[in-house]
Design a protein that fits this description.
The chain has 496 residues and is mostly helical. Helices cover 76% and strands 1% of the residues. It has helices spanning 2-5, 16-38, 45-73, 87-114, 118-137, 141-159, 166-197, 202-211, 218-235, 243-250, 253-278, 283-305, 311-330, 335-361, 376-379, 381-395, 401-415, 419-444, 459-477, 480-488, and strands at 76-78, 83-85. It has a two-stranded antiparallel sheet with strand order 1-2. Strand 1 and strand 2 form a beta hairpin. It is globular, with a radius of gyration of 22 Å. It starts with a helix and ends in an 8-residue tail after the last helix.
Length: 496
């Protein structure tokens, strides 16, 4: 008893400065919920929007400070190496916060128009963003899984918040069931990795795999395969993409944009950190599998997109195709491929958020038939021009960020001597361009005898469009600053 009385618990060291972005977002979410509970009659969409934006901007400033610290003092880790503070994690933190600002602005007018309660939506959005940052920063598979669930739980509810639409409830249920199914693969994969290496910490897994020669690698290979399947579900890579078109179509437009951009980026961040950081010594085992996934994803996304007649489903399959381009860069297993993937994800986020901002402004959710956009070039020429630029950027037209992103991805594949995959990527870009030009032609050429749609463009949506279109053109003309930013985020993925 005397010995037990002298035991002292010593907790892990915590770098609160490194955790500040997540804490700010969670604090903003709690503030919104607290004010809405104590003074519901005074809580408006404006208060929730301003609080979300203030939280995101404050976290953004902190992230820039962390980036400066990493560049001068080097990377660090916190909470017993469970979370890493390096160029990679800060890169994705900045990307996630940028998407958070855009989504909050897009949702402001949408929630008011559709009669959805703003406080709960913005609180869930903030919690989802915090979970995405944890995914990108996690140095431990368990912590990464917790971040994934925080991201996903917020999405489950946000998809179903449009209670009057059965499509939203159906989409939420489908995403919940299949999301839980993919989480099962991740959990079993984590268990097998722990069984074969004795740890879930990525640093320890990396060091163990580098020092030990396995007589039988079946357990390790099975764990890597299950993790690969789980991540493929989350990023909607073929053949694990079947949930994406229906869920994207049924979800509210701001949520669809968040899923197609930030949720996908967070999934790829976790994928890169695990497979490049922990399993880098075994890249010869997983790289061919990723190449096959990239091939299937490119072909499925581009071919199925041109067969659709609903704009939302078109962009859903387009999102699948874009995931294929990122996988093309990932399979190269080199720093150049990693920086190309980061560059592509950053530029794609702006393109897809701007596109879904326009879709949300076009009217009620549900079906978005292509003929709804007929004559938009006559009735709303500025809006049509913005949509055209974003679509052409996704097609990879020169002088846009999409062209630079696709060029870097294909160059990474060629550098890895994946010539067939590079050819498939170029062919997929040509096929996808047909779909994008089809939408453009509908806006400018098709004449059904009406004046064309006249959507009301709220000033918050206009800000998002100015930002996304401007960034798309800027990076297309002067891409070097973003290329260097992505390259600086590559060297250190994990650290103990």
């Amino acid at each position: 008893m005397r010995g037990l009385s002298q035991l002292v618990f010593v907790g892990p060291s915590i770098d609160w400065w490194a955790l500040l972005p997540q804490m700010i977002l969670l604090g903003a979410a709690l503030l919104i919920l607290l004010v809405s509970a104590l003074a519901p009659q005074r809580t408006s969409g404006g208060f929730s929007t301003v609080t979300t934006l203030c939280g995101a901007v404050t976290a953004y400033i902190v992230a820039l400070g962390l980036w400066s610290d990493v560049q001068t003092e080097g990377p660090s880790a916190s909470i017993a190496s469970a979370l890493g503070v390096d160029g990679f994690s800060i890169f994705f933190t900045i990307l996630i916060l940028t998407g958070l600002v855009a989504t909050a602005l897009i949702a402001h007018s949408y929630l008011d128009r559709e009669g959805i309660d703003p406080p709960e939506f913005y609180a869930l959005l903030l919690c989802s963003a915090a979970g995405a940052i944890v995914m990108a920063s996690a140095n431990d598979l368990i912590v990464m899984f917790l971040g994934l669930e925080a991201l996903s739980i917020g999405l489950y509810v946000m998809i179903a918040m449009h209670a009057r639409r059965p499509e939203a409830r159906e989409s939420a249920m489908k995403y919940f069931v299949l999301g839980a199914f993919s989480s099962t693969f991740l959990l079993y994969g984590i268990a097998l990795i722990y069984g074969s290496t004795g740890s879930t910490n990525l640093v320890h897994v990396r060091d163990y795999l580098g020092a030990v020669v396995f007589r039988d690698q079946h357990l390790l290979m099975a764990g890597m395969a299950l993790l690969l399947v789980g991540f493929s579900f989350k990023v909607a890579a073929a053949p694990f993409h079947f949930w994406a078109p229906d869920v994207y179509q049924g979800a509210p437009s701001p949520v669809t944009g968040w899923m197609a951009s930030i949720a996908k980026a967070a999934g790829f961040a976790a994928f890169l950190r695990v497979f490049f950081g922990a399993f880098g010594a075994h890249n010869a085992d997983w790289s061919p599998v990723v190449a096959v996934l990239a091939f299937l994803t490119l072909v499925t996304g581009s071919v199925m997109a041109i067969l659709q007649t609903d704009v939302k489903r078109m962009l859903a399959f387009s999102s699948i195709s874009h995931a294929g381009y990122v996988l093309v860069a990932v399979q190269s297993t080199a720093d150049g491929g990693t920086s190309a993937a980061l560059f592509y994800l950053f530029t794609y986020t702006f393109m897809v958020l701007g596109s879904f901002a326009i879709i949300g402004a076009m009217g009620a959710d549900g079906e978005h038939p292509l003929d709804r956009y007929a004559g938009l070039g006559r009735s709303r020429p500025v809006l049509a021009m913005a949509f055209t630029i974003l679509l052409l950027a996704q097609a990879g037209v020169p002088l846009t960020s999409g062209f630079v992103g696709k060029f870097q991805v294909i160059a990474a594949a060629v550098g890895h001597r994946s010539y067939l995959l590079a050819a498939v990527a170029m062919l997929s870009a040509v096929i996808g361009a047909f779909m994008y030009l089809r939408i453009v032609m509908t806006m400018y050429v098709v004449d059904d005898g009406t004046e064309g749609p006249s959507p009301t463009l709220h000033w918050t949506v206009a800000i998002v469009l100015i930002g996304t279109v401007g960034f798309t053109l800027l990076v297309g003309i002067v891409p070097q600053f973003l290329i260097e930013f992505a390259e600086d985020a590559v060297p250190v993925l994990i650290r103990g």
